[in-house]
Structures are given as structure tokens and as C-alpha cells.
Automatic annotation (TrEMBL):
<dbReference type="Pfam" id="PF05621">
    <property type="entry name" value="TniB"/>
</dbReference>
<protein>
    <submittedName>
        <fullName>Uncharacterized protein</fullName>
    </submittedName>
</protein>
<dbReference type="InterPro" id="IPR027417">
    <property type="entry name" value="P-loop_NTPase"/>
</dbReference>
<dbReference type="InterPro" id="IPR008868">
    <property type="entry name" value="TniB"/>
</dbReference>
Length: 235
């Protein structure tokens, strides 16, 4: 499956629970026709290559920290809330792990609130950061994901206000921003987009979880490539 680039695609991801095909014995396998054996092999490969996440110390740590931050949303706070930054080298599974954590969060929230099938409830928003994006481009990505109308003449601030209003109505409590290193905070455009995202996060009662490709995993020791505006998301 492709990444969930719309709200409906995300809901499909959350609802997907892979079912393992039957495990045949050697005798049963030998009794299959070539066509049946090929289909059996295809089904097994599809299952093994599908949406299966095994719990590891890393996923458990991400899940625990995310749950602690979500729990803190119940407290009254009139300043910016901390978020969670997951960083490391490429191909380590950061996006896969954080998407799995966000999926579990949505399932818990729907069960806890009794809104399992409520289309007007969206506990999680998932946004892949557009490469080299601007403040308006960042907000446009949220609008696209949510299926909101956009006008060519709309400003970044107008899109921000629209998205904030909708996320409050949807009861969103976790925002997952994937591949945030695409902001390129060393450039003025990327720094502006990071600043806009920081201001956006400060106005929502939601936990922001960001993923970033880095050469290290100690977020506090080196704020780049998140940049100073997003440094507070480290935990």
C-alpha cells in the first residue's frame, strides 16, 4: 500500500488487520496443483510483506512516550505542549514505527470515546512533509489530507486558520509529521515553514510527533535539521 495521503486512506490503514493465510503441512503442500501452489505462495508473501509490526524495545519506547504526552493533554496548560521527535538514520523504520504508534492511539481513542465508526472524529492526522515546502505549502498539505477546499489566492495564515478550526472539530489529539527533515531549515524558506509549523502546533491541544533522518539519535544535542523553531519537539 502507498502512504495514507488522505484522511480516508489513513482510516483504511487503521482498520487494516492482516489475516494470516493457513499454514499447510508438507503433505498438504504436495497435494496442491501448480496453480494452487503459486496462489498459496503469493498469499504468504503478501501477508509477510504486509502491514505487520512486531513490538520491539524501540516501538515500546515510542509508544510509551507518546502515551505519556497524550495523557498530559488532560491537564490545563496555556503554553505550548511538548511533542515527540523520532530521529535516526534512513531505512531504520521510523515512519513505520510512528505510524503504528499513531494507529494504536486512534484505536484506543475510538474505543475509549465510543466513537468507533464516527466519521466526524479523527484522533490522528498524518502528514508527509513536502520536499522544500513553504509555510503555505505545509498548510496546503494539511488541507489536501483533510479534503478541505483551497483557493489559489489563499494565504498561509488563511489555510492555517481553516485547518485549526477543522482539527478542533474533529477532536484531533495526535499530529504525525513525517520526514520533517524535508523542511531544510538551513534555508530561509525552510526556516519560515518550520516557524509556521511551530506556531500552528502551539494552537492545538494535540501531541505532535515528527520523524527525521539524522546521523544521531540524541535530539537535544543537535537541533538540526529540525531547527531551533522545532527543537522543543524533542523528548
Amino acid at each position: 500500500m502507498a502512504i495514507p495521503d488522505t484522511l480516508q486512506a489513513w482510516r483504511d490503514y487503521v482498520a487494516d488487520e492482516p489475516t494470516e493465510p493457513p499454514r499447510l503441512t508438507p503433505t498438504e503442500l504436495a497435494a496442491l496443483s501448480p496453480t494452487e501452489k503459486a496462489q498459496y505462495d503469493d498469499d504468504r508473501v503478501a501477508f509477510l510483506d504486509g502491514n505487520i509490526i512486531l513490538s520491539t524495545p524501540d516501538t515500546d519506547s515510542i509508544d510509551l512516550n507518546a502515551r505519556l504526552l497524550v495523557g498530559s493533554l488532560a491537564s490545563k496548560k496555556f503554553t505550548a505542549r511538548p511533542g515527540l521527535a523520532v530521529s535516526g538514520q534512513s531505512t531504520l523504520g521510523k515512519s513505520t514505527a510512528t505510524m503504528w504508534v499513531a494507529k494504536k492511539h486512534e484505536q484506543r481513542m475510538r474505543e475509549r470515546t465510543g466513537r468507533d465508526k464516527d466519521p466526524a472524529f479523527a484522533p490522528v492526522v498524518y502528514i508527509p512533509t513536502p520536499a522544500g515546502t513553504t509555510p503555505k505549502g505545509m498548510m496546503a498539505a494539511f488541507c489536501h489530507w483533510l479534503g478541505l477546499p483551497m483557493h489559489r489566492t489563499s494565504t498561509a495564515q488563511e489555510l492555517t486558520e481553516q485547518v485549526i478550526t477543522v482539527l478542533r472539530e474533529l477532536g484531533t489529539s495526535m499530529v504525525l509529521v513525517d520526514e520533517i527533515h524535508n523542511l531544510k531549515t538551513r534555508s530561509s524558506t525552510g526556516a519560515d515553514a518550520a516557524s509556521a509549523l511551530k506556531g500552528f502546533a502551539e494552537r492545538l491541544d494535540a501531541v505532535f510527533v515528527v520523524t527525521s533522518v539524522r546521523s544521531d539519535t540524541t535530539c537535544r544535542s543537535d537541533p538540526t535539521p529540525l531547527g531551533p523553531d522545532l527543537g522543543r519537539l524533542c523528548r
